[in-house]
């Protein structure tokens, strides 16, 4: 076994309040910040924390904490952005897992590299992004993803994952299923476009651009439009605790979708690319069921976007979880549709 140089300092009984966007105040039994992969390897080599689970944490923006964490919380801080290759049409850019996702988007936009501008202002880190194949306004991670590097937690060796190995789906990946808890993502590489072909057909992007008199938008215009839309609809976690979209948009078979549309002719719906499935907006279902703006104590449903559950101050995680279960039951009874949570509940 290699000689341990200097394992990072591990803290005990640390409040998680600053480390989750829902603003839930629970305690982590152990807590450590990792700035370089070697620090984590050296920590493991000490063997001091082999008796507890290791919970990897990015931006804490897709997490609902319902109790104290009897584990070692490993806060991933690995940063750095570098160009690793390019040709006439594309540029390959690698970012450390701890880089803030929106900062990475801004970096790409500033350099006129296209492909991820529609995902502006999505909370979280680069390392967490491929885990659930984040997406917004017609674009997903898989569209520009090239590969990622991840530490195999059994062998402690780095492995490379290409698109096929990641098994991306709608808010899904290998790392949420077969590979769950088996890897630590350390860096992600994207193939971005030098030729700009803005995607403006989804949501309100076109109308926002039209209001500004922008006819031939660049990626900066699209990014700004997306930011404006998101800020108008979604609460700032610094002001109201939340983790963005709490539920996935449900997808139904063509037959089940036809039945739902028959009962609710005005329901919005979209075909799922590459399949016969039909996607329905969970926010619409929740709003139609009367939950938009609902509040019980400090746990509630946002007044402007029913897909977002919020903590108005001192809600406990299990109170928000209970509210989510009530909503799921309501949607099943009214529409016959099963809602799945997008947020990880611990």
UniProtKB/TrEMBL annotation:
The entry's keywords: Cell cycle, Cell division, Cell shape, Cell wall biogenesis/degradation, Cytoplasm, FAD, Flavoprotein, NADP, Oxidoreductase, Peptidoglycan synthesis
Organism expressing this protein natively: Aquirufa regiilacus
Similarity remark: Belongs to the MurB family.
Annotated HAMAP family: MurB
Superkingdom to which the source organism belongs: Bacteria
Secretion signal, residue range per the UniProt entry: none
Cell location: Cytoplasm
PANTHER family the UniProt entry points to: UDP-N-ACETYLENOLPYRUVOYLGLUCOSAMINE REDUCTASE
Primary subcellular site in the record, as a coarse category: cytoplasm
Active site: 171, 245, 342
GO MF annotation: an example: UDP-N-acetylmuramate dehydrogenase activity
Protein name: UDP-N-acetylenolpyruvoylglucosamine reductase
Top-rank EC class of the record's enzyme: oxidoreductase
InterPro entries given in the database record: FAD-bd_PCMH (IPR016166), FAD-bd_PCMH-like_sf (IPR036318), FAD-bd_PCMH_sub1 (IPR016167), FAD-bd_PCMH_sub2 (IPR016169), MurB (IPR003170), MurB_C (IPR011601), MurB_C_sf (IPR036635), Oxid_FAD_bind_N (IPR006094)
Occurrences of domain FAD-binding PCMH-type (ranges): 23-195
EC number of the protein: 1.3.1.98
The reaction(s) this protein catalyses: UDP-N-acetyl-alpha-D-muramate + NADP(+) = UDP-N-acetyl-3-O-(1-carboxyvinyl)-alpha-D-glucosamine + NADPH + H(+)
Annotated metabolic or biological route of this protein: Cell wall biogenesis; peptidoglycan biosynthesis
Keyword presence, Protein biosynthesis: no
A Pfam family recorded for this sequence: FAD_binding_4
Function: Cell wall formation.
Keyword Cell cycle attached: yes
SUPFAM superfamilies on file: FAD-binding/transporter-associated domain-like, Uridine diphospho-N-Acetylenolpyruvylglucosamine reductase, MurB, C-terminal domain
Needed co-factor(s): FAD
